[in-house]
TrEMBL record:
Stated name of the protein: Adenylate kinase
Database matches in InterPro entries: Adenyl_kin_sub, Adenylat/UMP-CMP_kin, Adenylat_kinase_CS, P-loop_NTPase
Pathway this chain belongs to: Purine metabolism; AMP biosynthesis via salvage pathway; AMP from ADP: step 1/1
Enzyme class, spelled out: transferase
Organism lineage string: Bacteria, Bacillati, Actinomycetota, Actinomycetes, Mycobacteriales
Main location class: cytoplasm
Length: 181
């Protein structure tokens, strides 16, 4: 299955993705995790991404899309994947569509985790990652509203809306049930 996870920062996409990846036996591909791994390894890509991430802004799409293209071309992603954090803009969605089309592939579903802003701010402050301070959180939510939320309409028929305010287990079960139907 080829899936995209959507939702605001702090919606719990990463947590759900790990569980779904185990259940569905497809790799979890998180652009945030890939960037963070590059930063901790001190690669050029990490250096290019860091200042944007620290500010809560989007890393330029040219950089991000190349990284995703490379990752999707690895053998473990040949039969399916769970993309978390990409696409984040309409432009990225169009690039993803092209990447898949070149291989004769397409997305099966887009899971949209629906959660209020109050809850995501609370979750991010509790998580306390490097880029989880109040100012950066505000920027990331603004970027989400302006750039990422339009993807909800863009994906139309592929979209599965999942209430993401319950327990981790309930959300995971609801997601798997929605994919079954
Ligand atoms: P969250 O889900 O909390 O926003 P992520 O780990 O998905 O956290 O992303 C962290 C940061 O990595 C983003 O704020 C952004 O700077 C960068 N990033 C991740 N994915 C993308 C993307 N598709 N395009 C541009 N920047 C990205």
């Amino acid at each position: 299955m080829r899936l995209v996870l959507l939702g605001p920062p702090g919606a719990g996409k990463g947590t759900q993705a790990s569980l779904l990846s185990d259940s569905l036996k497809i790799p979890h591909i998180s652009t945030g995790d890939l960037f963070r791994a590059n930063i901790s390894q001190g690669t050029d890509l990490g250096k290019q991404a860091q200042e944007y991430m620290d500010a809560g802004k989007l890393v330029p799409t040219s950089v991000t899309a190349n990284m995703v293209r490379d990752r999707l071309s690895q053998p473990d992603a040949a039969d399916g994947f769970l993309l978390d954090g990409f696409p984040r803009t309409i432009e990225q969605a169009e690039l993803l569509e092209e990447m898949l089309k070149e291989k004769g592939e397409s997305l099966d579903a887009v899971i949209n985790y629906v959660v209020s802003e109050d809850v995501v701010v609370e979750r991010m402050l509790a998580r306390g990652r490097n880029d989880d301070n109040e100012e950066t959180i505000r920027t990331r939510l603004q970027v989400y509203r302006d750039e990422t939320a339009p993807l909800i309409e863009h994906y139309g028929d592929l979209l599965l809306n999942i209430d993401a305010e319950g327990s981790v287990e309930d959300i995971s079960t609801t997601t798997l049930d929605a994919l079954d139907n």
